[in-house]
Write a structure and sequence with these properties.
The protein has about 475 residues and is mainly alpha-helical. Among the domains are: about 120 residues, Tetratricopeptide repeat domain (Serine Threonine Protein Phosphatase 5, Tetratricopeptide repeat); about 100 residues, no CATH class. Helix 15 packs parallel to helix 17. The chain starts with a helix and ends in an 11-residue tail after the last helix.
Length: about 475
């Protein structure tokens, strides 16, 4: 087949799809093209047509058709029959990812995932035999590593072990290497993001710990300088699952404590570990015990944190009425009148309370606390939180149909977003959080009819840089 034949093949597949009216007619039309090319170009024609059809269906979100899995398997086998193992690996890679997606949505099976992953490893090993040597292995190896990292996020533990064993077998065969600089920087960026999450919400740390352990398992035999050491250090920072024996010991410490600050600090640490273990109700019980004392939360940071934690846990348990009282109690503390409570704790309460109020349609109250959060973020010198609070106020103003005020807050947020890219009190904020701000700002701009102004501002700041929103050059 010539390049011209390949172009014609692609056009014929598109035409077959356009002329179809349902799944049955689509299948008939696609097979007509496949059979035609199978006759015109024996072996290579069938392999090419099947590959092009499967790629077309992947790219056009047509994987849900019942005939697709069998078609994908036929395409895989056809690529192998003509030793096009790289093309076969692409199909198997996409199907493995698809099976992971189905499992996450509780629609797939672990057997299907295992089967497609086995086909992927088979094809990878076969094209490595053809393409890999000592000079090309670092580039090929980096690509395989990146795919293994993506696959390892799948839930079944047995599957994660299969991924690890395959990767180890590749290192045993071709040796260690230094991944590309781009890949190394991606892992460092992820590490920074994980550290930021743990530093701001220890309750999410167990999930981060599992991701880090998975990454260490894949990276520890490579030439990655101190990356693995830094990952292990962060892993050590995250508490382990707590045992019944440890719970008993910690409870004795709490009961023997005579100081409210110490009692709350011990309780706060224990309930975090209980939540990681899935024992949310037990955490609520312990936090309620310290909150129900006669102590004033405005005088003790640890107690204020207990109030906030209990409110969060109640909110997550759909006990909004009880949670609201606690959120409001801490959010109403005036930081300049209290030397004991940190502005960060008050701000966290304001943010959480805003979410609750907004979900209940109480936009005027939500706006009040969003404005307070904005003032607190300015006092703390946190540009990231300042911009986010600006956009939260915009959302409330928009819901209240206060269009002029919404635009003022929007422009203030955009000005600070574009002027403080990547800046935060703890160093650079991970890109994923900043991208969330960009997405939030764009959605608000569309809702306000200001999307053209948004695009103009983004292009003015980032138009010369590849990969940034608004750069359409």
């Amino acid at each position: 087949m010539s390049p011209e034949d390949a172009l014609v093949l692609s056009k014929e597949i598109i035409e077959a799809a356009k002329n179809s009216s349902d799944a049955e007619s689509l299948e008939i039309g696609l097979w007509s093209v496949i059979n035609d090319y199978s006759e015109r170009f024996p072996e290579i024609g069938r392999a090419s047509a099947l590959h092009e059809v499967v790629s077309f269906m992947f790219n056009n979100n047509a994987r849900h058709f019942t005939f697709f899995p069998e078609l994908a398997l036929m395409s895989y086998e056809a690529q192998g029959s003509v030793s096009k193992w790289y093309d076969a690996s692409v199909i198997a890679e996409h199907m493995t990812g698809y099976q992971i997606e189905l499992l996450m949505n509780q629609q797939g099976s672990e057997d299907e995932l295992s089967n497609w992953f086995s086909l992927w490893t088979e094809s990878v090993k076969n094209w490595c035999k053809i393409s890999v040597n000592s000079e090309s292995w670092p580039a090929w190896g980096t690509g395989i590593l990146n795919r293994c990292v993506n696959f390892s996020t799948a839930t079944p533990v047995s599957f994660q072990q299969d991924v690890r064993e395959f990767w180890d077998s590749m290192i045993d065969c071709y040796g260690s290497f230094a991944p590309t600089e781009e890949t190394i920087q991606t892992h460092f960026a992820d590490l920074q993001e994980f550290a930021y999450i743990i530093g701001n919400d220890l309750d999410k740390s167990y999930h981060v710990k599992e991701l880090l352990k998975m990454k260490v398992g894949l990276l520890n035999r490579l030439e990655v300088d101190d990356l693995v050491d830094r990952m292990n250090q962060l892993i050590e920072f995250v508490p382990n699952n707590i045992t019944d024996e440890e719970i008993e010991v910690q409870m004795n410490y709490i009961k023997s404590s005579k100081d409210i600050a110490e009692t709350c600090e011990l309780t706060n640490k224990l309930v975090t570990r209980l939540r990681i273990n899935g024992q949310l109700e037990k955490g609520i019980e312990l936090l309620s015990a310290v909150v129900e004392t006669n102590e004033d939360p405005e005088k003790t940071e640890e107690l204020a944190t207990s109030y906030l934690k209990l409110a969060i846990y109640l909110y997550e348990s759909d006990k909004n009425e009880e949670a609201e009282t606690l959120f409001k109690r801490i959010a109403d503390i005036e930081p300049l009148k209290s030397d004991s409570i940190s502005m960060h704790t008050i701000d966290q309460a304001c943010q959480r309370y805003c979410t609750l109020l907004s979900e209940e349609g109480r936009f005027s109250e939500s706006k009040e606390y969003a404005i307070k959060s904005n003032s607190l973020s300015e006092l703390m010198g946190d540009p990231f939180l300042f911009v986010r609070s600006c956009f939260n106020i915009v959302a409330d103003c928009n819901d209240l149909e206060q269009k002029d005020e919404a635009l003022e807050w929007f422009m203030l947020g955009m000005k600070n977003l574009l002027g403080n890219w990547g800046v935060g009190p703890k160093g650079k904020v991970p890109p994923i959080y900043l991208n969330q701000l960009f997405e939030q700002s764009y959605n608000l701009a569309v809702a306000m009819g200001q999307d053209e102004r948004w695009a103009m501002m983004i292009r003015h700041t980032f138009g010369h840089m590849d990969g940034f929103p608004g750069n359409t050059e």
